[in-house]
Amino acid sequence: MSKNTRVPGYMQSKAARNTRGIIGDREIRFKCSLQNTILDVLRGRPGWQEVPGPNIQQQNSQQNNKPAAGSQTSTQPQDGKGTKTGYQPVPPIQRNSDGDWDFYWCDREWLHQNYDTMFLHEHQKILHFRNHYELTRKNLMVKNLKRLKKQTEREQGKSEGLSFDFHPTTYELPSEYHIFVEEFKRNPGITWIMKPAAKSQGKGIFLFRRLKDITDWKKGEYQPLTDTTREVPETYVVQRYIENPYLIGGRKFDIRIYVLVVSYNPLKVWLYRDGFARFSNTRFSLDSIEDAYVHLTNVSVQKNAPDYDPEKGCKWSTMRLRQYLTAKHGSEAVKKVFKGIDNIITKGLQSVQKIIINDKHCFEMYGYDILLDSDLKPWLIEINASPSLTASGKEDYELKFGLLNDLLNVLDLENRLTGKEKRIGGWDLLWDDGPVLADDGNMECTTNGTSVTTANSFLGCHNDRKRQLREIYTSAQAIKKT
Ligand code: ADP
């Protein structure tokens, strides 16, 4: 699909073709480490040109005779995900001295290997902040949230701290093992979930109810290491399992939400209206805690289920979910759910705002995973810095294509917008150094015609992105002319 991807009509306008951006009077040169929807989007974008050849890290590896990014023997930290070993930045060489790209959708390993010694020109944009793992490693995310909660309680009182109660009780192992055991004994019979702090796609996860299960596991995991490829024992989190998930058709699901951060200082955050609910393929039951197909909603897990139907898939759009919930529980209840999700998004980012190394060249597109319980309370499960961009079907491709195209519209390397927009395609500005309010407090969420809160947040609402883009480009052009 790559080269011949159909470019949306609004992008084919003469104005778009004649775009001259901040880059100057030339095309925008991009690099991309991934071979999926993002590459299609970049290749299909008018005026953008792919930079061929090996990436900088590979050139560097060759020069230093070091293993390439992602190689098994690399000693660099893997996104803060994976074995964290003695991090030794590669010796500085003249990287990117020719400024051979303007935009780089790089992978996290590349960034870790190159960022510290890299010089970026004024106009260059690159995916990921240097230490994004502060939010995306499961243990660090919880640590940062707990810290901000304490600070908020100190400064604003205990009741304000309640707004942080959206992640299940979590302990880091092995460091907090003893505190966990005390908590475990205080709550006999409940279910816990054990997760490697730095893995994804459901790898290494298991549920348990008896301390014996974990002591056996602990013995194996934390024995003196004989395996020379592992340098330190892996960090895990143990987390209270949400035993009462909200079920639809008897099945559990979680919600994937896309959030774009273009700056941490000041914090500027966009929320995409579309996302999806990922369902498990098998009816929920607490009788079979060893069955991953029942309890883990990751697509990478579910697609291996024996009765998985690739045609049907296991996804609902957030709009369909919002409509379903509204029909069942009424719009007030649903507004509360989505307000709770907005709170999770902003609190998560605020918890690392002072820690993330802010850099005007960097941006991040996070995938938040949220689970609803049977009381419609949203829980934060995790935040991904590299949400999957591989499409699982036509609808999924369309969603991701629009999402990524609009992300480039927000970044606006072409300099076609005014910079004052509160909505760009499917992205709504949620936070701009403070909460952003919708222009019209009575604006309607068109899933069922009810009004939404005054926050500029439209998750699960109708995404008429093409029409909206046409409007803002026309109006920006008019403003720029005057
Ligand atoms: P990974 O990074 O491997 O995907 P997650 O933390 O996202 O790990 O967990 C994988 C899946 O397991 C989630 O999508 C969710 O369905 C389920 N899950 C994880 N933590 C919990 C929890 N505390 N309670 C209920 N379900 C959970």
Describe this structure in words.
The protein is of the alpha+beta class and 482 residues long. Mean pLDDT is 83; it is low at 1-21 and 56-98. Helix 2 crosses helix 14 (394-411) and helix 12 (318-329) crosses helix 13 (331-350). The protein is built from 15 helices and 19 strands. Adenosine-5'-diphosphate (ADP) binds next to strand 6, strand 14 and strand 15.
Which structural traits does this protein have?
single chain; 482 residues; alpha+beta; 13-stranded mixed beta sheet; 4-stranded antiparallel beta sheet; disordered N terminus; binds adenosine-5'-diphosphate
Question: Could you outline the blueprint of secondary structure elements for this entry?
Answer:
Blueprint: H1 14-17, E1 28-32, H2 37-44, E2 48-50, H3 56-64, E3 103-105, H4 108-114, E4 125-127, H5 133-136, H6 138-156, H7 158-161, E5 170-173, H8 177-186, E6 192-196, E7 206-208, H9 211-221, E8 236-240, E9 247-248, E10 251-264, E11 267-272, E12 276-279, H10 292-295, H11 299-302, E13 315-317, H12 318-329, H13 331-350, E14 362-372, E15 378-384, H14 394-411, E16 423-424, E17 427-432, E18 444-445, E19 450-451, H15 465-481
Parallel strand pairs: 1-2, 1-3, 3-4, 4-14
Antiparallel strand pairs: 5-8, 6-7, 6-8, 9-10, 10-11, 10-12, 10-14, 11-17, 12-13, 14-15, 16-17, 18-19
The protein binds adenosine-5'-diphosphate.
Adenosine-5'-diphosphate binds next to β6, β14 and β15.
